[in-house]
């Protein structure tokens, strides 16, 4: 059935109006669009359809029927990109940021007419605005939906309100941490001084013990006694171990010396026997020369003498080996003594470095504690708005009643009057 032109126009108008109603409008036509806004764009086009039965129906029937239909290829949701543009198929990039809905609708209509050579119907609505961000001294910082007419204090309320005593709380945490760190450094320093005092006593250089004096200035007498007892116990154990090792080495030296002396005595006695055998051999050879003894007996005595000379050389080698072992043991004892002294001096040097580092850390810690102790007066809240513009991000000081725009970042800061806490300074000492 062919509908009259009047009815078609009425139906098309109703469809066009329904599309307008279906599009959310969270921003009025006069509101400026911002980067991050989401738009719903619907494009309609009219089409003239010939009515072949117009002549038969009489004058009431139009020769052409006009119909409205939606361009699905162009309609849809679009977001204002960081560059401020929206990208529409066939139309290209259309500037949206900083313009009103009506201006964007007009630009889209011009682009449609330029592209297709005829006019089309276009509706533009905002489905979602860029959120407002709240950061700083609030209970629940984050991103919150933008509503028309939103002001700073409303955004702060959405973020849970101001974080009461946030500065004091942060300072208290930092001061407590610094106190714990400072206490740990003092403990390391006191232990190092006690250890050095014990090592200096072990060295036995005599005179005053500087480490003990510094330890007494740093800790009460009762704690000093406990630290020195613990360090002294370790030093005594180390001294006992060194003494046992020294005793073992001395015993080795004495054993080698005793062995060498015994071998020397046996060698002397054997040399006396060898000399006696030599005299006897001379006498027997003289008797043999006068043919008073047989040659076999002289030969036996000569063999015994030669054997004793060989044993004499063995005794001499044994004496040399024993004396060598005695020298090695003595050298080992001397070297061990030198190594012990070097080890003590090296440990004292390492402790000196550790003590100097700990004292430097204590001085730094005192400055940190004093710094965190500043600002115990009444708090005042300050607001800043970070807003993106054509030239980039801009930071402006704001009041509670200042209006916000989509995409704004509200920075909440709490400032306190200057003043130091005597309690914190006393605790730092």
UniProtKB/TrEMBL annotation:
Coiled coil: none annotated. Residues 132-165 form the Soluble ligand binding domain. Residues 30-126 form the Polysaccharide export protein N-terminal domain. InterPro entries: Poly_export (IPR049712), Poly_export_N (IPR003715), Soluble_ligand-bd (IPR019554). Pfam families: Poly_export, SLBB. Residues 1-27 form the signal peptide. It comes from Methylobacterium tarhaniae. GO terms for molecular function: polysaccharide transmembrane transporter activity. This is Uncharacterized protein. Keywords: Signal.
């Amino acid at each position: 059935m062919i509908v009259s032109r009047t009815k078609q126009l009425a139906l098309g108008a109703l469809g066009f109006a329904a599309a307008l109603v279906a599009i959310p409008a969270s921003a009025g036509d006069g509101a400026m669009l911002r980067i991050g806004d989401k738009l719903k764009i619907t494009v309609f086009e009219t089409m003239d359809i010939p009515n072949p039965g117009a002549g038969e129906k009489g004058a009431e029937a139009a020769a052409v029927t006009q119909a409205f239909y939606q361009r699905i290829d162009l309609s849809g949701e679009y977001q204002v990109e960081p560059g401020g543009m929206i990208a529409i198929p066939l139309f290209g990039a259309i500037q949206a940021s900083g313009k009103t809905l009506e201006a964007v609708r007009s630009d889209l209509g011009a682009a449609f007419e330029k592209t297709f050579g005829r006019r089309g119907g276009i509706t533009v609505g905002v489905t979602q605005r860029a959120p407002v961000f709240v950061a700083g001294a609030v209970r629940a910082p984050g991103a919150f939906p933008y509503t028309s007419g939103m002001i700073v204090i409303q955004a702060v309320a959405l973020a849970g309100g101001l974080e009461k005593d946030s500065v004091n709380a942060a300072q208290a945490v930092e001061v407590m941490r610094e106190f714990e760190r400072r206490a740990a450094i003092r403990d390391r320093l006191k232990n190092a001084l006690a250890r050095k005092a014990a090592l200096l006593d072990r060295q036995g250089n005599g005179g005053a013990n500087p480490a003990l004096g510094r330890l007494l200035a740093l800790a009460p007498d009762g704690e000093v006694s406990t630290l020195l007892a613990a360090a002294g116990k370790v030093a005594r154990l180390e001294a006992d171990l060194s003494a046992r090792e020294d005793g073992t080495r001395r015993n080795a030296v004495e054993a080698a010396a005793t062995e060498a002396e015994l071998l020397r005595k046996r060698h002397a006695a054997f040399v006396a026997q060898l000399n006696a055998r030599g005299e006897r051999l001379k006498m027997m050879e003289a008797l043999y020369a006068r043919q008073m003894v047989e040659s076999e007996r002289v030969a036996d005595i000569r063999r015994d003498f030669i054997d004793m000379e060989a044993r004499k050389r063995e005794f001499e080698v044994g004496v040399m080996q024993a004396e060598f072992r005695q020298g090695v043991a003595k050298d080992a004892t001397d070297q061990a003594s030198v190594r012990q002294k070097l080890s003590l001096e090296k440990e004292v040097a390492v402790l000196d470095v550790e003590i100097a580092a700990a004292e430097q850390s204590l001085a730094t810690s005192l400055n940190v504690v004093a710094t965190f102790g500043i600002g115990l007066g009444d708090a005042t809240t300050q607001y800043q708005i970070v807003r993106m513009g054509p030239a980039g991000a801009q930071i402006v000081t704001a009041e509670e009643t200042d209006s916000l725009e989509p995409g704004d970042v509200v920075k909440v800061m709490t400032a306190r009057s200057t003043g130091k806490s005597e309690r914190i300074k006393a605790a730092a000492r």
